[in-house]
Each structure stands twice: as structure tokens, then as C-alpha cells.
């Protein structure tokens, strides 16, 4: 039985079906994908959740090929707002942050990123803090510097290296995984919220409620649980007996990072023509002190969609605003970026967003490790009484944690654990 039909649950289903196992997948929502949520945009998809493929991510590319689609390199120039104007960035902020964090690998004791940065230069501190907030959606005052250093500097070709965008977004990949669930051995239960997971010597029994609130019970040999750390920390579902102490401790050493991501569709790609065409090939705009520190275009694809992005403590602050106020804030930030060359308020055609922090089935965007939690992810991969196997982005390796690739990989890993434990006759 697989609990949750996001990337991890679907990848787990694929592996178990390939091994001819009978599976039941329970999903609370009426759609698949969890933190993958693709809308149709102006000639391009609008991804309100996961969008990029970070680094080499073999499992993502394998599945994109299976979906008969491809991914393209993220292109375009990066502009940084400094001294009152946008300037083409000469330095690669990733490189500076990775170099700075590389020095943390020699530390014996874990500290927060903020504490570690106290001795760094001003520029290193600014880039590292901005990227830890923006990329990891983490609070630098709470995030483990050892975990983040491991993620960023041990990772040649990994998630902080090149970035790609699946053509058509992640929707084709989800469709392919969905089609595999039509197999004879698969049962998919949508609108089915898991409330309790009971394990005993004979197996696992899940109690769930359907859309009408009616209770149902499902029994299986084992359960792969793919819910986010935020969902598990909120005590949903209830585990009986409770999760063992090492699992609970590991969960408490992780946190869900907040992200506010807006899809802003404009009447035209106005930034391509202002300022004498200076931003015609822009990919990213950065301004560290803005509420939305990053905007990106769809380059190399030309479209009138801009994404506004805020992660970490700044996203927490934005989460207190209503939808319209968030859009207004993003447009104000954009106007300030372009220093009067354009008024994005006049250009907006439509705005899209999903509140991941208030979504009861996500409770945040993705996980990061708190001080002392550099090994928490690993601890979550230990089977619980040989009956419960945790999967999901939070259980992926440090280099892939928080990503779609990490979630997919974790689903395949949990399936392999189940198959190793339970042979076909068992
Ligand atoms: C705004 C945003 C931007 C992101 N950008 C990127 C990016 O560019 N690149 C990248 O690689 N990653 C990105 N990510 C992260 C990526 O989307 C996630 O890591 C990944 O999708 C997580 O998959 P998962 O299967 O682990 O979890 P989920 O997708 O959360 O799947 C868990 C499933 O369990 C279901 N569920 C929860 N509770 C219950 C319950 N009680 N009963 C039944 N079902 C339940 C949920 O509905 C969900 O379908 C982003 C995430 C967000 C939110």
C-alpha cells in the first residue's frame, strides 16, 4: 500500500508494479502530483510547485524519456539589482555561496548558517544568506550549516549545477506515471484522506475517510508513507503504535521551508523592449532586499510569463498577506527593479498562486535540516518494524533532498526495500 500520490508515491508504484506486486495507492486529493501542480499558461505551462530539474537527476530524465518528452537548459542572462540599478551579474552567486559553504565542511560541531557566516566577508554573507533562503527555502538562523554545505559543495553536477525545464512542465511525466496505475494490479483511491496507520505482526491497517467523510479500512503487508515532513509533524495520520523515537527525533530535526511563488501573465513580455532592449534575453532578476528577491522568465522560450519567487523568512512574511496583496507586492517589487522604465501593474493580465503553507496536504514547500539534523534524512530511511517505509523528498540523499528527483528516487528506494523484505510468495 502506498500513501500519497505525489512524485515519490507514483515512482514507488511504478517500481512495485514492474515487479508484479499488487498495490493500493491512497491519495487525499482529487488530483495526482502533490507538490507538482501544472496550469496552462501563455504558450508555456505555469508550474505553481516544482518546475526545474536540478543537475543531472538521472531518474527525472529517465521518466521524461518514458513520457516521450524532453527538458531544455534554462537560459538567459542574470541581472542583479545593485546601487540603485539592475546590472548584468558578473559573479555567479551559486559559486560564491558554494565556495563559502565549502569551508563549513571542516567544522566539527554543527551550527546555524547564520552563525557560520558571522566570520565571512560581507559579499559572501549576502550571497550565501540569499541563496539559502531562496534556494533551500530555509531560515539561515535555524538551518544546519553542515547539511547545507554537504548539499551544495559535495555535489558536482547535482542540484546546484545546471538547471533544466521539462517541456510541457511536469504534467507529461505525471500522466505517464498515472497511466501505469491503470495496470490490473493497481488500485488508486483518490479523495481518500489517511487518518490512522496501525501496524502489527501481520501487516498494516489504514483507516481513511472518503470525500463524503465515510470511513474505510485498507490492509496490506506493508505501507510506504510519502507524506511531507510538515504533514507528519502535524500528527496526520496517527500512527499506532507511535513512530519509534529515532524516527520522531529525525522528523523534529527537519523543518518545512516556506515558499511563495506567483505566476504572473502579462499582456506582453514588456521587459524585452524597455531600457533599449537591455533585458531582452533576461533569464533571472535578483534583488536581495525585496520581498520577492527573484523573478524569472521562461528563457530560452519567449513568453509573457514571469515567475515571482520568495523563500524562507521572507515567504513567511508574505504568507500573512492575502492573494491580492501578494500580487500587488510582487508588482511593486518589479516596478522598483525596472526603476520607472515600466509599470507592471498596467501590464498584468492574470496571476496564479497556490498557498503551500496553508495546504493541509503539504504544509510548506520542501524540507531543510535544522542544526544537528545533518543525518536526519538518512535516519528516516530505516524501515519501521519492517512494515512502514518512509519515502518523499525529505528522505532523499542530501544532494537531492527537497527536489522532484529526490522524491522520485526515494519512492524507487522504498519500493526496493519492500521488495527485498517481502518476496512474491510472502
Ligand atoms: C513552490 C514550490 C516550488 C518547487 N520547485 C521545485 C523545483 O523547481 N524543482 C524541484 O526539483 N523541486 C521543486 N519543488 C519541490 C518538489 O515539488 C517536491 O520536493 C516534490 O514534488 C515532493 O514530492 P513528494 O512525493 O515527496 O511529496 P508530495 O508531492 O507532497 O506528495 C505527497 C502526497 O501525499 C498526499 N497526502 C498528504 N496527506 C495525506 C493524507 N493524510 N492522506 C492521503 N494523502 C495525503 C498529498 O496530497 C500528496 O499528493 C518545489 C516545491 C514547491 C512547493
Q: What global shape is seen?
A: globular
Domain count: the total is 2
Q: What name does CATH use for the topology of the largest domain?
A: FAD/NAD(P)-binding domain
Q: In DSSP terms, counting alpha (H) and pi (I) runs of 4 or more, how many helices?
A: 14
Average pLDDT for all residues? 94
Percentage of β-strand residues: 15-25%
Tell me how many strands there are. 23
CATH homologous superfamily identity of the largest domain: FAD/NAD(P)-binding domain
Give every kind of bound small molecule, once each: flavin-adenine dinucleotide
CATH class annotation of the largest domain: Alpha Beta
The level of helicity is 25-40%
Give a summary of the structure in a few sentences.
Helix content is 31%, strand content 24%. It is an alpha/beta fold and 426 residues long.
